[in-house]
Write a structure and sequence with these properties.
seven-stranded mixed sheet; Rossmann fold; alpha/beta
């Protein structure tokens, strides 16, 4: 199977590992607990996490007691992961080609990642890895654009998506609609507030692969527009701490 990953992901995440770790939000603990429950994680279980990035979600699985093997194709993200979570194994691989044996895992989890995968191939690979009755979990944080300043921030960054895979497009669902390898997805939604400085918001924008992959002049122009928004918007103006609202979507499906 091919180890090719999307060009924007390869370029952007290679440049943005530090910003990713500083600026990306954590996850609602209620959402994490729901996913851990749905996947029946605990001591003696093995969970594989493709697209693990810097381990933002991985570290929240540790209290479950399950053994975790992370998989990440971008070297800079793997290096950051290893520096932060040296006790965990992180493998070089993609969701479509994971260097682990058949039927080895009790669960596969993808956080903020499945929309980057080639859906049909990824589901086939997850099915190969999972034991009978094993489960797949997905989780995403999405910006709550019902909040005015967040909607204005989205207007600044979204014009650069240019066909980049996005969770909110819903295209990732196609693989689940046609698969016979997994039962239908179950879904739950939670709210989450990320509290940080204006620089945290700037790192959040800088961590987006489609922004990080831009030429430097354009990238800096985007960040300056975000700075201006934070400086002038009444909900963020003059604030040392800004609450960035998210909605967290959790999904799970059982291997057939």
């Amino acid at each position: 199977m091919s180890n090719i990953i999307h060009e924007t992901a390869a370029q952007g995440f290679a440049r943005a590992a530090d910003s990713y770790e500083r600026g990306r939000p954590e996850y609602s603990l209620d959402a994490v607990h729901r996913l851990v429950s749905w996947l029946d994680l605990g001591p003696g279980k093995l969970v594989v996490e493709p697209g693990a990035g810097t381990g933002k979600f991985t570290r929240l699985l540790i209290p479950s007691g399950a053994r975790i093997v992370a998989v990440e194709p971008v070297a800079q993200m793997r290096n950051k992961f290893s520096s932060l979570l040296p006790q965990l194994q992180v493998l070089d691989g993609t969701a479509e080609a994971i260097p682990l044996p058949d039927a080895c895992a009790d669960a596969v989890v993808a956080a903020q990642a499945f929309h980057w995968f080639r859906g049909d191939a990824a589901l086939a690979e997850f099915h190969r890895l999972l034991r009978p009755g094993g489960k797949l979990g997905l989780i995403w944080n999405r910006r709550d654009e019902s909040v005015q300043w967040v909607a204005q921030l989205a207007a600044i960054v979204d014009r650069f998506e240019e066909g980049t895979p996005r969770y909110k497009s819903g295209e990732w669902r196609r693989a689940f609609a046609s698969t016979s390898l997994f039962a239908p997805l179950r879904h739950a939604e939670f709210s989450y507030l990320q509290s940080g400085t204006p620089e945290t918001v700037l790192d959040r924008v800088a961590s987006m692969s489609m922004i990080a992959a831009l030429d430097e002049e354009t990238r800096q122009g985007v960040l300056e527009k975000v700075r201006t928004l934070l400086r002038v918007h009444p909900d963020t103006r003059g604030r040392e701490l800004i609450e960035f609202p998210y909605r967290t979507d959790v999904y799970a499906a059982e291997r057939i």
